[in-house]
Amino acid sequence: MESGTQSRRERPAKPALSRSWIISATIDIMRTEGLEKATMRRVAQELDTGPASLYVYVANTAELHSAVLDELIGSLPESGPSGSWAERLEELLGSYAEVLFTYPGLARSALVIRPSGPNAFGLYDRVLGLLLEGGIAPERAAWGVDLLLLYVTANAAEHSAPTPSEVDTQRDEPAEQAALAEALASVDPQKTPHVAAHMEAVLSGSPAQRVAWAIHALLAGIAATPTPPVIAGGDSHYDQNIRTAL
């Protein structure tokens, strides 16, 4: 055997493959190469194994990305005791949004496959607990959690940084805002009278201000809007009215 060459017996044994190791390797790939590169084949290559070995732990790439998001949700900081329930809720939702912004593409994946791991359920429970602390009725609070998390996820999907394959078409948000303002300034008041009359309001507010306002608006709506009464068979009176109208 040539000098400096290790025999197979002398090489350190690879650690046993596990779901947690797969998720950790996927996160590392996401940090350096982007979510779209974190495929089953690429992760298997990183772990020096075959893709078939991964299917014992995750069914497909979509499930892998869902598991990664669940792992990252587990790193969200605990809410401190200070601040009102609404302030702590806004802070928690902001931390969740930050995770989605940190890993471009993850929010878009979350819109397709809802995270359903233990940490995702833990986030749901924390949001639900804060809504209940705010005096919102349990049935409204339970439905409201879905609405709040969906808004944060969709907003992150719209505004998160581009994936590596999208770099060439990366949006310049200040330039886009300027272009939008210029386009709105040229609208025909006869065709869009309300936009023309309230241009300043249409363009007002920073993205952060608009997000904060949206959360407050959603909270007010959740607190004030009753859930529909459920009748036998699982349909609500709302469902019946829609079907009757159709």
TrEMBL record:
Keywords: DNA-binding, Transcription, Transcription regulation. One of its GO terms (biological process) is negative regulation of DNA-templated transcription. GO terms for molecular function: DNA-binding transcription factor activity; transcription cis-regulatory region binding. The keyword DNA-binding applies. Coiled coil: none annotated. Residues 16-76 form the HTH tetR-type domain. Residues 39-58 bind DNA. PROSITE patterns: HTH_TETR_2. Gene3D superfamilies: Tetracycline Repressor, domain 2. The keyword Signal does not apply. Pfam families: TetR_C_1, TetR_N. It comes from the Bacteria. This is TetR family transcriptional regulator. It comes from Leucobacter komagatae. The lineage of its organism: Bacteria, Bacillati, Actinomycetota, Actinomycetes, Micrococcales.
